[in-house]
Amino acid sequence: MDTIIMKTDEAGAIEKASEILNAGGLVAFPTETVYGLGGNALDASAASRIYAAKGRPSDNPLIVHIADTKDVYKLAEEVPEMAETLMEAFWPGPLTIIFKKKALVPDTTTGGLPTVAIRMPSHPGAYELIRESGVYIAAPSANLSGKPSPTTAQHVIEDMSGRIDMILDGGAVGLGLESTIVDVTGDHPVILRPGFITRKMLEELIGPVEIDPALIKPDKNLRPKAPGMKYTHYAPSGDLSIVESASGTADDAVVNKINVLAREALEAGKSVAILTTKEHRDSYGVSLSNDNRTDGQEGCLKSAQVILLGSRSEGATVASRLYAALRECDEKGIEVIYCESFRDNELSGAIMNRLLRAAGHKVITV
Length: 366
Ligand code: TXA
Ligand code: MG
What we know:
Strand content: 15-25%
Bound molecules: threonylcarbamoyladenylate, magnesium ion
Order of helices and strands: EHEEHEHHEEHEHEEEHEHEHEEHEHE
Distance between the termini: 50 Å
Number of strands: 16
Strand order of the largest sheet: 1-8-2-3-7-4-6-5-9-10-11
């Protein structure tokens, strides 16, 4: 299949994308969080095509994107008052709410669940596409299943070219991590996936909010309530470990440990990357001359690549760079990755959730 690629603001782009959606086809589009892979949420066969294009298990439900709060009442069987409070406060924006679904939403879209995830994105390109097409757009992140979510059109092109009808290129997204998901179908609201809308922000409006216990600690006996959270996600091909000290920040002990580990890996002939922020970019000077190599190879990577995640004091810059950095490790064929821990900023809930899963919960404590 030839994939049409157009800039979101190019003449005719939104019209073309709308036509494709209305014909049951698939269009990747930018949102403020990550790129989505969209199809008609009310068309079971479009939803099936989304699963096939992503290589995603079909028991992992899709988020339905809308452009008008009123549409919630058409898709959801019940809209609790606390959901209305949240919609009013955070939509359009990076918050997905789980409702009991109406029969009109196909089981294929919801992975067989009796509930539906709904979100109103704030990105103007996404908004225009939903408005122009008149379609409720079911969209997971536009990556191949298991890969980091795409934060640029180039990431989408790498994963989806030839697999879907069209890619709308809106440049790099603003936030870079997927929306917060909150379930309001039970007695108490529960966060199923942390994001930019934090627990504190929700609790200020609706009182106590629980966090799905399966998110806090990996436990084979706990099933995450968002089916997608049980899959290995976001994982780079290299072996990623998080290095942290009790403070959760990158203190001298963390920096020293990463330098020691990176040198050992280089000596073992591995290609190595260190994920850090601008505060510590000069603290990592790990390189190996050919004389020190024990594997006899020449001309290979001899220094650890230092990849910057923005600034530690501004969590949003780390969030926005994280997935691109993991993809960069893959592009460079990095075999071993050490990343500083980020438990010390306002977005640590969202950042550490993604990072821990990318690392398969491998944490080295110093
Ligand atoms: O920011 C985002 O939410 C992005 C953009 C494109 O909107 N979308 C996104 O979709 O991250 P996806 O499919 O990659 O993640 C959706 C998550 C999955 O973990 C899925 O299991 C969960 O939402 N989910 C969807 N519907 C659900 C439901 N009815 N009940 C529980 N979890 C649900
Ligand atoms: Mg995803």
